[in-house]
Amino acid sequence: MAVFDHDVFLLSGPIPLTTPAEDFSVVRPFEIRAGAEQRVPFIFSSPHSGRYYPERFLAMARLDRNAIRRSEDCYVDELFGGAIMLGAPMLAANFPRAYLDVNREPWELDPRMFVEPVPSYCNIRSARVAGGLGTVPKLVGEGLDIYSGRLPLAEAIARIEIVYKPFHETLKRLLARTHAAFGFAILIDCHSMPASIRIGENGFRPDFIVGDRFGTSASAALTETAINLLSAMGYTVAHNKPYAGGFITEHYGRPVRHLHALQIEVNRGLYMNEKTLQKASGFDAFARDMALFCADLMAIPDHHFLDLPLAAE
pLDDT tens digit string along 36-93? Predict the structure, then answer.
C-alpha cells in the first residue's frame, strides 16, 4: 500500500530551480496510489488537490503562500482515499492547480498571458480561458491574478509537455488496463467546490454535484446510483448544474465503448474552513461517509455497464 504524506509542500530558502523540468525533482508531479491488486473496475482521479508548490513557481507568483492555494480542491484525495482500500487505484496530482490544470484541453491558453504569440492550434476562445482558468491558469479561485506580468510561452509549453501529457498518458493506461481486465472501466473524477455555491432562484445549496455531461459520459444507472446513495445518506445533491464535468469527464466518458466517467463535486463547507484551509472537526467522520459511499457505488451490478451496445466502427 502506498504511504501518504498529507503535508502541504511550500518550500522556502535559496533552492536553485531554474526550469519547469526541475520543478518536480524533489516530489513527483503525480502518483498512482493503489493496493497490491486492483479488485474493482473503478479508477479515482484527484487532479486538483495537489499541494506541492515548487519554489521557482512561488517566486514567479505575486500571491502569498496562502492566497495561491485558493484554487486547491483541498484534501479531496484524502476524502476519497477509502476507495484505495477497497481495491480501486487513485491517480492523484501533487502539482497544484494554480500551476497547471489537467482538467482542461492541453492547449487552452490565454494569449494575454504570454510574451510571444501562442500557436494557432491553441483554443483561445473557450469560456474557461475567458474566465482566467485555462490549462495554465491566470487566476486563482477568488479571481486574483497569479502573476504580475506576462510569461514566456516556453513556460506553458514545458508544463504541458512535462506534467500535463504524462498525467493523461498515465490515466489512459489505467483505463485501458482496467477495461482489459474487467470488460469495462469507470472513472470517478473527484473535486470540491466553494461553500458559496447556490443554485436556482431559491438559492439551493448543494452538498454534492454529480456531473455526467448531461448523460453523455456515463450510464444512467451509475449517475442515478451515485445521486441516490448520497441522498440516502442525508446529503443534498444536484445533477449537472452548475458543474456537468470538465475535460476529463468529457474526454474519457464513452459509455458505448464501456468507458464511463462521472464527476463528483464536494462542498468544501462540509469538511474544512475555506479561510484558514484547515480541516473541520468532522473531517474524519465525513471521510468515513465517503468510504461507505464508494463501497456502495462499487457494488452496482456489472450488467449496467456490460449490456450497453458498442458503437459502430
Answer: 999 999 999 999 999 999 999 999 999 998 999 999 999 999 999 999 999 999 999 9
What is the distance between the alpha carbons of residues 199 and 249, in angstroms, rounded to a whole number? 21
What pLDDT, in 10s, does the model give residues 3-16? 333 344 443 344 34
Q: Are strands 208-211 and 52-53 parallel, antiparallel or unpaired?
A: unpaired
Q: Which residues of 62-88 are buried (b: 16+ CB within 10 A; e: fewer)?
A: ebeeebbbbbbbbbbbbbbbbbbebbb
**Angstrom distance (rounded) from CA 163 to CA 23:** 10
- Calculate helix-pair angle for 220-232, 283-298, nearest 10 degrees: 140
Phi-psi bin for 157: left (phi > 0), alpha (psi -120 to 50), beta? alpha
Contacts for 270 with CB less than 8 Å, ≥ 6 apart: 207, 280, 282, 286
